[in-house]
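idk why but the lab printer keeps eating my pages so im just putting this in chat instead. protein + adenosine-5'-monophosphate-propyl ester:
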Amino acid sequence: MSNIGTYEERLKSFDWSIAEKELDYKSGDKINIGWFLSDRNCQKGLAKKLALIHEDHEGKVRKYTFDDMRTITNAMAVFLQKLGIKPGERVCIFMDRAPELYFSFQGILKMGGVAQPLFSAFGDESLFTRLDNAKTAAIFTQKKHVAKVRKILNTLPELRHIIIVDADETTTLRDREIAYNMEKEPRVESFEVFPSTAETPSVLHYTSGTTGQPKGAQHVHYSLISQYLTAKWVLDLQPDDIYWCNADPGWVTGTSYGIIGPWANGITQVVLDAGFSAERWYKTIEKHKITVWYSAPTAIRLLMREGTEVVKKHDLSCLRHLCSVGEPLNPEAVIWSQEAFGKMFHDTFWQTETGCIVITNVPGMPIKPGSMGKPFPGITAAVLDLKTYEPITKAGTVGLIALKPGWPSMMRTYWNNPTVYQSKFKNGWYVCGDRASIDADGYYWFVGRDDDVINTGGHLVGPFEIESALLEHPAVAESAAVGKPDQVNMEVVKAFVALKPGFQPGDDLELEIMNFIRKKLSPLAMPQEIEFVKSLPKTRSGKIMRRVLRAQEWGEPIGDISTLEND
Ligand code: PRX
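predcted complex ->
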């Protein structure tokens, strides 16, 4: 029997207080996510249970119990206090998926800091934009990434401490750098956890929009309520499960469901700090006897490409429940997973801003391959008319996915950007920025983004960030970045570039510009193709019309171009 029971029954009697009661939380109480993930589990008799099974790229496995996690995160919290980090200050985590990532996240929360996880493949400019915006006070990182921090240090006066978690005797520490060895540092038995309450800021996750630089979605400790219950009901986590989430905590899936949700449920998690390989992934499932797996469409498509022969070489009968997030899950992938694993992937739709799964196929609900499922109980969702922002009642009509604000893990603002935050609300609805339709049975069918944001392999990349970086290249006069179709990643970045006088288009220049972006921003933001053009389509007011270029890439009708300047 699944945790949720039947969807219809839960809908009738749902209240978020179900989660509050299970977590022994009452309105007005203290609530600190860091404490809930380890201390509370230890108090509930799980001290000796494994919390983390960590495997690195070389196959070395390290295991930590809930009590290990409790005392290590206490030690990290004490360390931050001694450095002079104050509650409310932002502490960035910029590293690969080492155990230190998972534990520093909790140490920061325990001492009242705001955790700011960033993807370790970010280049110095992506890093700078986010540290500068958040006025980050300290950063946890590794030797292999510290050069990027050093490069931008002079322009970040507020960044007081760079904590290197794998420094050894051979590492020469420079300005503001300090070594912290989690394994050698004495563990701390008791720590007075910061008395955060429901609305105390907890996590700051940066996400890309169409205009402007990335924005920090500000979450609060009360988000735990949603993350705990959705992990329990949608991922169907049960006490003996071994759970694996493929996502990097640089993205929200890796924190909400790679740290908070599963550990709030006292579940053993596997983390694999290695790149993608079908063989390695199946071996990991088999070796650690993974039962619940949270993955993403791009990964599933990569696995599909490798075929079912490699699946058959492994005993994957341990798998009990499969979920997916981040991009449209194509029906073929759902059908293939049934063939390959004897289980269908359950799609889940949500965003950095929502903090938890909001539309989904819960266990037991018949899956319609290609549909995202229905709103999670406790989430009021609709599809709004594109012009009036009124809910659409006619089945099958495409509109904007919208949610009634008020669930616990809804972001509370965009960091230092209340204006853009406000612009996300229309008619009392939070508008996600995606289009979908709802069928006669209440199932949601994703259509596409309603803006210019590029979703590459489940990661959102903002065109503005890429275009700004392109302009820093000496040859680029103007540019536009759009998504172009891709078999595996759904979309990849394509840049249209007009060159300055004196520069000639060519393969060498294309490669040079690609690498320039890869280094500055990240491999995800790097254009896979650059098309050199004489000029870009613009509105009469001078705004570049990415829509026209995007439609061209997708072979779609261009739509209304009456405002085009150069028509
Ligand atoms: O466009 C939707 C797409 O990813 C966006 C949210 O991205 P992000 O904030 O980075 O969070 C990703 C992981 C929670 C959405 O606005 N998206 C997410 N899940 C799905 C999806 N598109 C289609 N189907 C999904 N299941």
